[in-house]
Amino acid sequence: MTTNSSSSPTTADSAAKIPIDIISEEEMALIEAALAAAAATAMPASHLHRNSKSLRSITLLSKRGICACTSTGPSDIEDSGRACGSSPQKNKRNVVLESFLNRFRKGRGLSVSDLTGTEWCEKQTEFILLFGKPKRTKAMKAGSARHVVLEEEVIKRVKVQVESAEDAWALKFMNFIVGSNQLLFDGLTRELPLVGFVEGVWMVGIIDELRMPVSESTKFPVLVDTKTRVRPTLPGEPQKRNGRFQLMCYKYMWDSLVADEFPTKKFFDFFSLNPNHILSPEIRDNTTKSGFPSETLSDVVRYFGNSCRSLPMAHDQLLLRYELQEDHSLLGEDEFVYDPDLVKDQIKSCLEFWLGKREASYPPMEELWKCKFCKFASVCPINSDPDDSPIKKGEDIPSPDLTPK
Q1: Is 270 helix (H, G, I), strand (E, B) or coil?
Q2: Fewer CB within 10 Å, N side or C side of the chain?
């Protein structure tokens, strides 16, 4: 049966067929926080101004690929493949600073949001990593709550207690298996978790929606992402480009899972997981009810691999939807074709920043209006000259909707 993506279940029979999405207590807390529009604590703007000199100093220390030299200590030089200044000298110690990937995503992997944030502005991403995310806006909270509602139209959430990292990962794989089966049999699924090894880096993400085309004889799932808008207007090109990049990352990950053997050993090693860990009774009970009884994390991963091999590649046509937050009316759609070379090049560019191969870059000159809406603009080196500040130049540019997923 193919499910119409624009309609939600209305009868008892259809509701009974809705799959179950197992979530942890931590995830449930996040959902409840989104629905309640709870605000996160942020660094006051006045504090940022008072510490602007300190922020700039720490930012200098955060630059990757640059050696910090001191005149004390023995001349034991860390092998980094690059020198500090000229050739090493006695009584000098070269300290190679860790990459942002190792400092902030070690054992966790990069998220697709990490990549899209980098594409938007690498310098802003650097500030967020060093000093924390600014306070979430009302629009961001509304966007998060909307995605919860869309998911609950097709998937019933069930709260399950997580007792270990192995349990948490088992839940992610379970939700992928259940969601992909729903896609194959019903033609629609939402909030599907992904994990994959992309360009030598572990990456995670959640696809908003996958649809099976109704009219085509060969079924390739279409990836869809819904963005909510405060204003009844479509976004500018930089935001559309960022959304397209996000969807192309998901297709890249999906196609890799479908086409390649999942690197199980690398996965267990990177995330420091015990494949023979006995899962909690609740999780084992739910795997049995879902049709793939599992005792250990290794069992679930094996079922996950089998599920991936049964799936087709994603459709080359990708779809971005824009809704008005006020009444969820459709403002417009952006249907575009997947560009494998473009997405690979962009991912590699983002990874240069995350792997410490180069310093954070700034947006191009024509996109410096972004600074007007950045909480770190007052302490960013690009705005050091107040008379030539992009903030002043961008005063007449309408505000973009920067609501993340």
Answers
A1: helix
A2: N
